[in-house]
Amino acid sequence: MKKTNVKKQDQFKTKRSKIINRLIFDIVVFVVLLAIGTILLNKSLGFESEKIIKYSEKSDLDYKVYLVKNDFYEEEYLGKDMLYVANLIDKLVIDFDYKFESEDKENIDFEYSIIGKLAISNPTGTKSYFEKTYVLVDKKQINMTNSTGQNIKETINVDYPYYNSLANSFKNQYGVESDSKLTVYMLINAKNTKDSSFVLDKSSVMSIDVPLSERSVDISMDYKEIDETSNIIKKQKMTIKEIIPLIISIILIALSIMMMLRAMRNINLLRKKKSAYDKYIEKILKEYDRLIAESSTLVSLEDKQVIDIGKFTELLDIHDNLQIPIMYYEVKEHEKSYFYIAHDKLIYLFEVNANDMENK
């Protein structure tokens, strides 16, 4: 009887030992799964660290001045950077050439348009009498895809006599001293695509100023080109190199998380304090182990008279009188137990219920 009771008294230690063993197992499996999952994850993914990418913009603006038929010039047109007689100009042909170059292959969207702006101002150019813009080339888009460079070329014809006549008409009609010019410019916007690992939002302008004047006998054309170098800050970017290791790594990491949660649950079980019920049962088994025998099955209550005992000490008195062992049967672990003495058709029953103890 004593061996059986000692074994029962030690079940709490045995259970704690089992929890500790499970905890150690869970931690080892968690570490192994997480380590393998992490290695496979690093193998399947590629990371590109932040770096500075240089890019450059350059332009080449060229123009030809086409002439009306005259008695002096045999050429059909004159090149740039010359003197021109206004009355002999038929049209201007302007060639815009823009080049974008990058150190790395990138995806960039370009949008551009060509605008003409007629401006009539006072002789000093500080105040404007009249301004008007003309869309010479509607907005166009060009996409640079996985490339280190992009070239944009556009050629337009400018009806010089038309704009010159507008300026002359304004001056003659209102009799004001004025300075007039037509500015033709290409506006280029460069933006990164949505999937880019950098931010680029830049506007560039290449332009040419064409003086307009009724009395002028020469025209000097000023033009502005682009020649700039700058940087793009390329942020860290993640790419998938191998899909199968990635899937395996996700599964292993998910399993490791499950093992971690189970380990945490076992830790909570170890930290959990014994209930009043467990302490009471443990105390009885320890103090009266020589008087108590554990039963794996509950005695049949059929054709028996059950006498409920209110206190364990009363059951001890019955034991002393009848000299019959007190039987212990656990109905539900940590919740309900029976201590009883069976004598003929009588069952002296003392019930220990965790819920009743908590309510008290």
Q: Any overview of this molecule?
A:
With 360 residues, the protein is of the alpha+beta class. 32% of the residues lie in helices and 44% in strands. The protein is built from seven helices and 15 strands. It has helices spanning 2-9, 11-44, 160-174, 243-271, 276-287, 312-322, 354-359; strands at 45-48, 51-67, 77-78, 89-121, 128-158, 179-192, 201-212, 222-224, 227-234, 237-240, 292-294, 305-308, 326-332, 336-343, 346-353. Strands 2, 3, 4, 5, 6, 7, 8 and 9 form an eight-stranded antiparallel beta sheet that branches. It has a five-stranded mixed beta sheet with strand order 11-13-14-15-12. Strands 1-10 form a two-stranded antiparallel ribbon. Helix 2 (11-44) packs antiparallel against helix 4. The two termini are 32 Å apart.
What is the percentage of strand-forming residues? 35-45%
Give the overall form.
Answer: rod-shaped
Can you count the beta strands? 15
Major sheet attributes: 8 strands, antiparallel
* Structural class by secondary-structure content: alpha+beta
SSE order in H/E notation? HHEEEEEHEEEEEHHEEHEEEH
Overall pLDDT:
86
| Structural Rg | 48 Å
Amount of helix: 25-40%
Alpha plus pi helix count: 7
Regions with little confidence, pLDDT below 50 for 5+ residues:
1-9
Rounded to the nearest angstrom, the distance between the terminal CA atoms is: 32 Å
